[in-house]
Amino acid sequence: MEKRALIIGASGIVGSNLADRLLSSGWQVAGLSRGRTPVSPAIESITADLGSADSVGRALSGKSFSHVFFTAWSRQATEKENIRVNGAMVRHVMDAVGPTGTLTHAALVTGLKHYLGPFEAYATGAVPITPFREEQGRQPVDNFYYEQEDRLFEAAQRYGFGWSVHRPHTIIGYALGNAMNMGVTLAVYATLCKETGQPFVFPGSAAQWNSLTDMTDARLLARHLEWAATSATARNEDFNVVNGDVFRWKWMWSRIAGYFGIEAAPFDGELHPLEGRMQDAGQTWAGIAARFDLKEADIGRLASWWHTDADLGRPMEVLTDMTKSRQAGFLDYQSTPDAFFALFDRLKAERVIPQ
Question: Which Pfam families match (predicted)?
Answer without folding.
Answer: PRISE (PF22917)
